Amino acid sequence: MTISSKRVESFSDNVIGIIITIMVFQLRFPRLNAQFTQHDVWHNLIPLIPHFIAYVVSFVVIGVMWVNHHHMFHLIQKVDEKLLWLNLHMLFWMSLIPFPTAMLGDNPFLPQACMMYGVVMLMNALAFRIIRMHIIKHELMYKENEEQRNSAVDEVNNRVKVKNLIGIAAYIVSIPMSYVSVYIAYACFMVLPAMFFIPDGVKTRFDVAKPVAEK
Amino acid sequence: MTISSKRVESFSDNVIGIIITIMVFQLRFPRLNAQFTQHDVWHNLIPLIPHFIAYVVSFVVIGVMWVNHHHMFHLIQKVDEKLLWLNLHMLFWMSLIPFPTAMLGDNPFLPQACMMYGVVMLMNALAFRIIRMHIIKHELMYKENEEQRNSAVDEVNNRVKVKNLIGIAAYIVSIPMSYVSVYIAYACFMVLPAMFFIPDGVKTRFDVAKPVAEK
Amino acid sequence: MTISSKRVESFSDNVIGIIITIMVFQLRFPRLNAQFTQHDVWHNLIPLIPHFIAYVVSFVVIGVMWVNHHHMFHLIQKVDEKLLWLNLHMLFWMSLIPFPTAMLGDNPFLPQACMMYGVVMLMNALAFRIIRMHIIKHELMYKENEEQRNSAVDEVNNRVKVKNLIGIAAYIVSIPMSYVSVYIAYACFMVLPAMFFIPDGVKTRFDVAKPVAEK
Amino acid sequence: MTISSKRVESFSDNVIGIIITIMVFQLRFPRLNAQFTQHDVWHNLIPLIPHFIAYVVSFVVIGVMWVNHHHMFHLIQKVDEKLLWLNLHMLFWMSLIPFPTAMLGDNPFLPQACMMYGVVMLMNALAFRIIRMHIIKHELMYKENEEQRNSAVDEVNNRVKVKNLIGIAAYIVSIPMSYVSVYIAYACFMVLPAMFFIPDGVKTRFDVAKPVAEK
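Predict the joint structure of the above. Result:
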């Protein structure tokens, strides 16, 4: 791992850290005046529920992206000029996530808000796929101890690739579905976080962890 | 300490740094018009006092968390997939802290604001405990010079564990107490920061510092 | 590369990461009431278009700056006191970018907004040039394997220097042009991002990448 | 320099980077309606001037603090528990800087705003002094090549100590002076940035730079 790859990672971490944290500022509760009633309290708390749910989903998706970014760059040995730009491209779409998240939190039943969320998430999943294809095509990955690593890494890579493609498909479907029923669109949004968040067996998880930890 | 563990630490530092800093933007003083009176000034400054107190308490709690996170990850040698997720889980609850802090700053006598603060802080303390249990269970800690370190580290770990459990208890108590008296809830919120902030003797503090500094 | 140079880079990355991310919070869509019409939706979405365009342009310019900062500091071996200050000077002008970006997003046809954008961008390009001149004058660059590196590095340096000077000229022109026609000013703003963003041949890009990756 | 000291530095850099950047969001220009006049434009731009000046002054002061923090921690070999807390204490007062900066930008002639700025800055200068005293008292500094370094380092330390004490005195004077004349208070606020920003001779600056660069 070169110093350059470390700077790309640390810059990405800064940007991802800001995106994941700052969305919480959509959760705002006003100052109540002295004669407030219980009704006033709940009247102000209830509209925060969709914001909270939107925050949780976006936090999980960005968390999934960070973990995958971590794994991907951990295996990178060479950083070329184009990778810097492709990474910035991904960060651009990631930095847009707070916008549809807030829009959906404010208007949970607005088809355009759903569609916007689907579009931004689709672009994120595609940006990830483009980086992965560039790394594989230009052979930027780490090659030491190739035999030891290959089986575990290949397994992970294939599984992540399949999950990424399913995620892309789900987000594509969500876009027209926003106009049919927002609930179908919501279900589509859950596909990617569910796939990564729900473990696929403790054993394989630790196969993944080993090369990360023992290097 | 592997490169991976460093990236987890640096990402956590980004997120914690943003959370701890950005709460200060709740402190706002309006532009006064040209004919302002001394009364106008104080009328706008006084409501900032609960905000300031809430900011100080949350700053100290997040500071305590950062110092403990620092100590905990300093001892970690292996990072597995699950630890990444548990750390993100902790950062999720930590990222919510600005919300009840602002709500309480705006409405210092609202039981629901107190309760919300207690719930978020309880989840933070629990998230910390879950990470600690995972590290111990899966033996992810650093094992070099075990004999040298063990006595100091064990002492620290035990003390932190006890403080963490007392903090969890205090936050659990604070939740129903919010509806009895907000002052009792406030007292509960002070337990955890007080335990970590007030030194337990200069001598033991330097026992803690040694393994941190000489590695 | 000394530890000090790393801290300058990491601090710059923090600041650049915040600037590039936080501009997205200018994109805000209000909460619509229950009786909203399609007209209300589009009435609120359309004014976001100039904000989105301004965001994209500023993101690309800051991205270009980050990539160049990365290349420049990658070659630096010695950090002197003055370089710290010149870097802070550049970060100052960079931190102002969100202001004219938001002003232009809100008022896309206001000459003063255009002029302000041109002035801030000009100061950024000049601040970059000042750092580059300081590094060359005081010979702070890395000198190992000089013969191997020189040809590739010199080529890159010359090309970046020429692009930087063209960018400065374009921003100088944009300032009076804002009062003639905002469209001419917009065209000037596109010069610098276009020069860096559009690749100048895959072969030369990889010449650039090699010293970055193999060090 | 231990890994722990690096994490303290990088956490501090995150927090300082956020503080120094985010103040710019006080500079806001409203969306003008289609029938705006030149008067409207200037009516909205002129109140931004005190905000801009306050931003520049606070940026310079925080920049001075970052450079000094950089120098101070560069010389630190051992990090003890208390240093973590003293550093958080300094970051607390630093994180408050945006509040009086915005208050003063909105109300440049309000004595209470001036006083608040003076108090927060005084606490920052004192927090810095407390860290420096702790480091010297507990001998946490780097001791390798002591003879080579001592003369340069001692000279710098003494000069920084004197500047810090003069700054503390200036901020103490500014507090009562805010009620006599805000202009006298403004002059006091300029003392510390002026002392650090104006170079005290190129030769001594490079004596400072050498231990930073050649380590």
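Residues 3-24+36-214 of chain A form one domain.
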